[in-house]
Amino acid sequence: MFNPMPETPQEGLVSASQARPLDLPVRPRNPGMPLELDWVEEVRVNRSAVERRAATLRGRRTVKKEWQAAWLLRAVTLMDLTTLSSDDTTGRVRRLCAKARRPVRADLLAAMGAAQLPIRVGAVCVYHAFVETAVAALEGTGIPVAAVSTGFPAGLSPFEQRIAEIRASVAAGAEEIDVVITRAHVLTENWPALYDEVRTMRQACGDAHIKTILGTGELGTLRNVARASLVCMMAGADFIKTSTGKESVNATLPVGLVMARAIRNYRERAGHLVGLKPAGGIRAAKDALEWLALVKDELGDRWLRPDLFRFGASALLTDIERQLEHFVTGRYSAAFRHPMA
User: Fold this and answer.
1) In angstroms, how far is CA 156 from the centroid of its own chain?
2) How far apart are CA 304 and CA 3, in angstroms?
3) Would residue 190 count as lying in a domain?
4) How confident is the model over 4-21, as pLDDT tens digits?
5) Would residue 11 count as lying in a domain?
């Protein structure tokens, strides 16, 4: 039977008794800490070294055959299945939630001996207007609903409105809130303003986990990405997220490497665990494998769980299913055989 959570690229086939649950008993919260400006200012990033390190992932961490299939099943469990289109409807959201319940075709799971494994996505991510629809569609599954709030994607609506939107999404049943930071605070190096903004948003989230969207493609430098990551974590972010998916440049491996090392640095210094969510432009199964290799190398196996790592994606699931069908049958199928909604 396939274990969707192998400890190493070589671990792929296990017995039914060895298959572990996909959820941990307690999802960690990051309480944050006081803002340390000296720590933020001392951050340095060597861009050429980061890019060289990211480039090695494609060659050093390749997995094939049953091990690749096992890692792809794991990737499914780490996915925030997302629809954030201007033409979203309640019907589309309900169909997406049905896909979230059974993200991989039953015949493929059966052929891999994984039919009894609880393969499901990490969350469903929607606009605030569809939170209640998604919560109702996912009732009884344990799959949380994530809402994009705070004037997504620009994050430039009045601050009071952004806070009110967070509270409304939580009241509607969202267990996770993806907030947009004010990029101008980063670009002008106004770190106290960014800290206070995220701290206030975290308080508005209450028990819901908060993911801070940095909009890395608009921050100018990797140093800004690292410093913004640290400030958001100090303010209590449970996840740091790369992008809204609406920028011209979204999730890239160099950005992911910088954010992962910021998370590691924060854990070593503050003692708290923070999750990572790459989002935007991750469409191919091979991209997912590269991100998993990066996270395993930089943060370790503990981060290869849905409480500390997520993909923000939709098209990615279709390509993963196509790769799994190729593993089972030896043939690539058309995308329409794996509908999203």
Assistant:
1) 23
2) 13
3) yes
4) 444 443 333 333 333 334
5) no
* Max CA distance (Å), the chain: 57
Contact 220, 254 (CB under 8 A): no
Looking at residue 222, its amino acid is L
d(CA 72, CA 324): 8
Could you give the number of structural domains in the chain? 1
Rounded alpha-carbon distances, angstroms, from residue 28 to 295, 303, 308:
18, 11, 8
Q: Containing domain of residue 308, as a range? A: 16-337
**Would you report the helix, strand and coil content of the chain in percent, each value rounded to 5?**
50, 10, 40
Reading the block at residue 148, the tokens are 């994009």
Which of these is catalytic: 277, 287, 296, 307?
Answer: 277
Question: What does pTM read for this prediction?
Answer: 0.91
Helix axes 253-270, 222-234, angle to 10 degrees: 40
216 assigned to some structural domain? yes
Is 119 within the bounds of a domain? yes
80, 99, 178, 319: which one is catalytic?
Answer: 178
79 is written with which tokens? Answer: 């996915």
Is residue 207 among the annotated active site residues? no
CATH code (residue 201) = 3.20.20.70
Tokens 């620009």, residue?
A: 154
pLDDT 10s digits, 130-189:
999 999 999 999 999 999 999 999 999 999 999 999 999 999 999 999 999 999 999 999
For the residues 297-302, what does the mean pLDDT come to? 95
Write down the H helix ranges in the chain. Answer: 37-41, 47-60, 65-77, 90-101, 106-111, 131-137, 159-171, 183-187, 191-205, 222-234, 253-270, 285-298, 315-329
Of the candidates 80, 211, 238, 241, the residue annotated as catalytic is 241
Q: Which residues contact 269 (CB under 8 A, 6 or more apart)?
A: 39
SS3 34: coil
Contacts of 90 (CB under 8 A, 6+ apart): 130, 133
